[in-house]
Amino acid sequence: MRVDGEKALRVFMVAGEESGDQLGGALMENLHAAAPGIAFRGVGGRRMEAAGLTSLFPMEDLTAIGIAAVLGKLPTILRRLRETVAAVLADPPDVLVLVDAPDFTHRVAARVRAANPNIPIVKYVSPTVWIWRPGRAAAMRPHVDALLALLPFEPEVHRRLGGPPTFYVGHPLLERLDELRPSEAEAERRREPPPLVLVLPGSRRREIVRLGADFGAALAQVGRKRPMDLVLPTLPRLEPLVRQTIASWPLKPRIVTTEAEKYAAFRSARAALAASGTVTLELALAGIPHVAAYRVGWLEAQIARRILQGTTVILANLVAGENVVPEYLQEYLTVPVLADALDKVIGDTPERARQDATFARFDDIFGITGPSPSARAAEVVLRLARDGRTSALPPPA
């Protein structure tokens, strides 16, 4: 709590995409609670604006997916980069917080540090240096004073790669465990026939297009062996494409489009077939055995084969430290293997038992007791804001 006469803290925040806006908004709410009178400037979306930020420009100006989209928006992105840096330097804040969007925010950090080395800089969300471009870890160190990590293995990765001081604060999904995990009645539904199986073909149009036919055929193959209750959660904007995609499927899932319906299905689901992504971590935290798959275009696949590190891209596997969730990528994604793997995690099999046992360890791995992830993040931000770059931060987790 601020004492009389203490200067109100000023925080400049930058987020460049929807997930970063959600993280930034939750962080702002915790900063408000811990430091009444704190003031915010910067760039963000609806969640951050609801928490008290007036964005310098629409956050969507920084969002572009794919090479063609980035090239098309490059003049706008470069202009917004110059404007953001100029706004920080014109009225230096007590701390600069950069949320995700690494291609943009790392450039902001480098330019601000070069022009004014006294401004503490916090980066919220580690880039995926454990999968590709590991050199980004060391490249961040000169201009990032504290990196806030969502995943428990990331501090050790950055220590090994020479990255900035990294503090594990926790994944935002940890704040939604009550929505993900079943009541006693819902847990009983997981054991009852017919099994409720989640179908999760992705949150991007190209994912749904590339995976749709194989998912439908694999589900049909499993359906010839056992009855299933299929539920497909999606976003309202993708519902027309999803309905078009499943029109030819022999087994039709029930489509749900709200968060409440999605999490109700999660709490009752016995198994899932999913596109690789953050949803695999949601499934693991919900205790749902699953199979993951992904397919990209030919050129993207050739590039990925040359730059990706490690033996898995599944977050649940990376957190567990073992490849417990089967994943089928590119040419290894075939209907027979997908169907066989899904059938095994639905049934009472060693494969299902192994996932159950692994996911049961996640509460300990993530350290879910104590303050929430956004509250932990706020503690680090406030320490730097109050004491400056020379503050004695506790050792990274």
How would you describe what is shown here?
It is a single chain. With 397 residues, this protein is of the alpha/beta class. The chain contains 18 helices and twelve strands. It has a six-stranded parallel β-sheet with strand order 2-1-3-4-5-6, with helices on both faces. Strand 5, helix 6 and strand 6 form a beta-alpha-beta unit. Helix 3 runs parallel beside helix 4 and helix 9 crosses helix 15. The radius of gyration is 22 Å and the shape is elongated. The N terminus is likely disordered.
Could you write a compact summary of the structure shown?
This protein is an alpha/beta fold and 397 residues long. It is built from 18 helices and 12 strands. The longest helix has 24 residues, at 67-90.
Ordered list of secondary-structure elements with their pairings:
Blueprint: E1 10-15, H1 18-34, E2 39-43, H2 46-50, H3 67-90, E3 95-99, H4 102-115, E4 121-124, H5 135-140, E5 146-149, H6 154-161, E6 166-168, H7 177-180, H8 184-191, E7 196-200, H9 205-223, E8 229-233, H10 239-246, E9 254-256, H11 259-268, E10 271-275, H12 279-286, E11 290-294, H13 298-307, H14 315-320, E12 327-329, H15 335-346, H16 350-359, H17 362-366, H18 373-387
Parallel strand pairs: 1-2, 1-3, 3-4, 4-5, 5-6, 7-8, 7-10, 8-9, 10-11, 11-12
Helix pairs in contact: 1-18, 3-4, 9-10, 9-15
Keywords summarizing the entry:
6-stranded parallel sheet, elongated, 397 residues, disordered N terminus, alpha/beta
